[in-house]
Amino acid sequence: MLAGHFGLAAAVKAREPQLPMWSLMLATQLLDVLFLVLYGLGFEGFRSATGGRVGYGDLYIMADYSHSLVGALAVSFVVMVVTMIAWGRRNGLIIGFMVFSHWLLDLLVHRPDMPILPGNAGNLPRLGLSLWAIPWLSALVELCIVLTGAYLYYHAAMRSAVRAERADAKASPAVSRAEGGYRQHALFSAVVMLVLLLGTLAGDFFLGG
Known about the structure:
Blueprint: H1 2-15, H2 21-40, E1 45-47, E2 60-62, H3 69-87, H4 89-109, H5 135-171, H6 181-207
Antiparallel strand pairs: 1-2
Helix pairs in contact: 1-2, 1-5, 1-6, 2-4, 3-4, 5-6
């Protein structure tokens, strides 16, 4: 679901241009960063759901700390507070939500392997709506998120480019930027974003989700 998380980051960037793209992408992947750390320490892991090769969506994730509901909420809260201190209340709320959005999107695709409490304390029912069990549907949902994010990113970039060109023309009518220069730059950045998102989706699908 890496591409889906990044697609959401692109969509939010279109609405909140003051936030660096890297911060939104990192926020959407922070729970997986924690998973990798805990995986390296031997506390978390994954296995094939069918016992064969690990393909797209063919996973049970044993992430009882990083992907528990309460754990994800706790990490999101800490990141929100830290970001509020550094970047202000609004940005803190957005980044905190983006961290937790990872858990929400994972809930859609994961098989029932996401615990409510860290360490699966109390042995409560695990959560997951199992969209990964239908790989083509999971890939389609992820593609829709990616294309929506890229579309919103493109339109936001073009609006900003048009405003910049108008501001330049108003400030110095005699000295104008090359015709369409801002828009060309916006188009280039949007194409790069689309290629990044689609490439990530291809990596998800062909390298194992």
